[in-house]
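Long-time lurker, finally posting.

We've been working with Adenine phosphoribosyltransferase (Dietzia timorensis) and I want a structural starting point before designing mutants. I don't trust myself to interpret raw outputs, so I'm hoping someone here can both generate the structure tokens and explain anything notable. Sequence follows.
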Amino acid sequence: MSDFSAANALIERHARRVPDFPTTGVEFIDLTPVLADSEAFDCVIDALGGEWSDIDLVAGLDARGFLLGAAVAMHLNTGVLAIRKAGKLPPPVFSRTYQLEYGEATLEIPAEGVELAGKRVLVVDDVLATGGTVAAAVELLGEAGAEVAGISVVLEVPGLGGRDKLVGHNVRCLSAG
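Top reply, 14 upvotes:
Generated this for you. Predicted structure of Adenine phosphoribosyltransferase:
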């Protein structure tokens, strides 16, 4: 069994499905049990980082992407960049505001202290749903001069159009909700 199929099976076994959360009619898929199981966590990290090469930096999205991104960076023997929610980093910052299904949000990265120009970056997150957060991260990294080499997520929620916002990028999802 490949890393990908093994990770998919472990995600399916451990993920907790919560009906009507955060609102009625929505099924929330809680990946916390996947991350808490050492075998599942190790397999997921191997699969998230497995196919990527020539990566200079892994970018993890606030907040679960921090956990995954740091572990993938260790796996790939590279550094990690935390892409933060607005107001968490000291200035100067690069920032990108994007639309959510219920409002808007802003992501930020340091404009000083981390040289991103010309770096090949792997973006890592837990879930790809509507794609707004990941697309904003990709735009933000591009603004800073980085090249997004790929996007790797644990779970893709089908039918929400997330991939449509990432056309032209190499996207790897381990499991479909």
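Before you design anything, note these points.
The chain is about 30% helix and 35% strand.
The two ends are 21 Å apart (CA to CA).
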